[in-house]
Specification:
Strand order of the largest sheet: 2-1-12-11-8-5-4-3
Order of helices and strands: HHEHEHEHEHEHEEEEEHEHHHEH
Strand content: 5-15%
Radius of gyration: 19 Å
Structural class: alpha/beta
Largest sheet: 8 strands, parallel
Helix content: 40-55%
Shape: globular
CATH superfamily: Aldolase class I
CATH architecture: Alpha-Beta Barrel
Distance between the termini: 58 Å
Length: 342
């Protein structure tokens, strides 16, 4: 047999007992979840920003960043609802490289998934405790969502996972908004099929149980750009793209039509400073069209304390060790400018 069984990991409830979420923060999350749902339902006109580092690699820097975000969030709270990106699982195109804090609590040491589970749960709780904001993470491994379900207010399913049956079915049982990214090919129908599947009740095998779900009415589209067969980036944040998605939603009669625009990845061609221009263009499109304003509920922005990125081992505090990010000065200025356009 080609598998080596290294160690049996604790069940989610055991991990939660090791690191419980205090009741006052559970109540805070419930309040924040209701505010976020209201945006997707259209009963709140606030605009979402899912914003933070490409990868949450260092707890001290991530908590520091989240606290900075909280101070700005207070200034713009009438117009914006900020959700810190605390992404602890990183998909790797080739399977090589840093796979996130879940795998490596210390990026310079060997993988240790038990230590990783404890480290990421602790970091999410510390973000809530110190900033008063409840975080987002990527559902890279659907089986692991149970370890974090009580500390997250938003979940994303990535471009490489959006066609996967288990991701869709687990999303149908999650009680917070789940963003389904368009696949790397850019095919909107794949993304919309995923949303449809997640909004429906499903039955399947999950963590050795037969599971039934009621469907997740807050599953929605995330536009992150695409790559063609020649490896060229194809953006999909333009006005025409947003109108096409709005019409596709109408054709399929999906619940709570919503789009989040990812300003980085293939939309920016991984040129991180382009996120500023892209964010402003999306805001202009919302002002130009009532249909676009109704459907575009927010932006995803990759941002950290220091701009750009670094290699593992360079130890520049608050700088990404994966994709390059906006620095804090540009981030704060951009958040305030976005608020002016609501």
């Amino acid at each position: 047999m080609s598998f080596s069984f290294m160690k049996e990991l604790p069940e989610p409830e055991e991990i939660k007992k090791m690191l419980p979420l205090p009741e006052r923060y559970a109540a805070l999350k419930e309040e924040r979840d209701a505010q976020i749902r209201a945006v997707f339902e259209g009963t709140s006109e606030r605009f979402l920003l899912i914003i933070g580092p490409c990868s949450a690699d260092n707890e001290a820097a991530v908590v520091d960043y989240s606290c900075r975000l909280a101070r700005v969030a207070e200034q713009v709270k009438e117009k914006l609802l900020l959700i810190p990106r605390v992404y602890t699982n990183k998909p790797r195109t080739t399977g090589a490289g840093y796979k996130g804090m879940l795998h490596q609590p210390d990026p310079e040491k060997k993988p240790d998934l038990l230590a990783g589970l404890l480290a990421i749960r602790k970091m999410h709780i510390d973000v809530i405790r110190e900033s008063g904001l409840t975080p987002a993470d990527e559902m890279l491994y659907p089986e692991n969502h149970s370890f974090m379900e009580d500390v997250l207010s938003y979940v994303a399913v990535g471009a490489r996972s959006v066609e996967d049956q288990l991701h869709r079915m687990v999303a149908s049982g999650v009680d917070i908004p789940v963003g389904m990214k368009n696949p790397t090919s850019g095919d909107f129908s794949v993304m919309l099929n995923s949303i449809m599947a997640a909004q429906m009740p499903q039955s399947f095998i999950y963590r050795n149980w037969e599971i039934e779900t009621s469907g997740n009415a807050y599953t929605h589209a995330v536009l992150r750009g695409a790559v063609n067969k020649h490896g060229q980036y194809i953006p999909n944040y333009h006005f025409e793209d947003l109108i096409l998605v709005a019409r596709a939603y109408e054709d399929r009669n999906l619940k709570n039509p919503a789009v989040i625009v990812d300003t980085n990845h293939s939309n920016s061609g991984k040129q991180y400073l382009e996120q500023i221009r892209i964010a402003k263009e999306v805001m202009h499109s919302r002002q130009h069209s009532e249909a676009v304003k109704r459907i575009v509920k927010g932006l995803m922005i990759e941002s950290y304390i220091e701009p750009g990125c670094q290699k593992v081992g360079e130890h520049i505090y608050g700088r990404s060790i994966t994709d390059p990010c906006l620095g804090w000065e540009e981030t704060e200025r951009l958040i305030l400018e976005i608020a002016e356009h609501i």
